[in-house]
User: What shape does this take?
Amino acid sequence: MRPLHIALAALVAAVWGVNFVVIELGLAHFPPLLFSALRFLVAALPAVFFVGRPKVAWKWIVGVGLALGVAKFGLLFIGMDRGMPAGLSSLVLQVQAVFTALFAAVALGERPGRARVLGMGVALAGIGVAAVDEGADGPVLAFVLVIVAAACWGVSNVLTRKAAPPDSLNFMVWVSTVPVLPLLGLSLLFEGWDRDAAALAALDWSGAGIIVYVAWITTVFAFGAWGFLLRHHPASSVAPFTLLVPVFGMSSAALLLDEPVSPLRWCAAALLVGGVALTSLAGARRIGAGAAGHSSSGRLRLHASTPGTAASRAVSAEASP
Assistant: This one.
């Protein structure tokens, strides 16, 4: 990769990592479900008028919108609102790679190789260490909610692989249209009209800036940049940069929110990031090798760096926080 593209990949990882700190700040302005609804509303508008018509069937857009937007982000925001630290959330959420591999084995018949199974075991060990560290004095329910959010992310990843979107930005923008009304309805039901109205009435420049960051910067800009990188480089070259997300997440939370990072948490981070690396990259190599094998036989002429290939779609499906 060219130095400028390496810098862009690192910038995207930093944007996604810092996003957890911004979410933490946003929860001081908005109830979690309303906050999530506003994130997707602003991500969808006005971008939906500029990305063109959907390039996949609506069933996939709706399915991913519900699994990713309503379930994953709804639970993540609620978990963080109930006390799950931003840095730890950025780390624990990466266990989605394990859930993705497990769900893909069931739904798509993707048999994990030995390296991938080892990676899943290492990542789960990291989650166990993080649970021990957090369980001493942290909110257990909030921790569990983020784990369930990671599982919902795994479901959305499998649905995205089935959808096989040729344009990740177009897909993400249209997906962002789906969760808005369900999240608003859930917010009115569980958070209440009075609380939602008070949060909107108190909206200031700080709150508006937070919404713009989580919507336009982390979604529109970051997904656009990630899609650009996948169009110009093999997925196996781009994928490792996602492992920087929890590094930026934990570091920014420590610097900006004064979140303590215990030695046990660093141990959990090393295990989880290492396990996710084995799980994700082993899978990407197998997909890339399969595509290359088909190409050489003349049955399918694809390459991992070509937009819309299986390897590119797999990485883009698992990239964003």
Remarks:
- Confidence is low (pLDDT under 50) at residues 291-308.
- The first helix runs from residue 3 to 26.
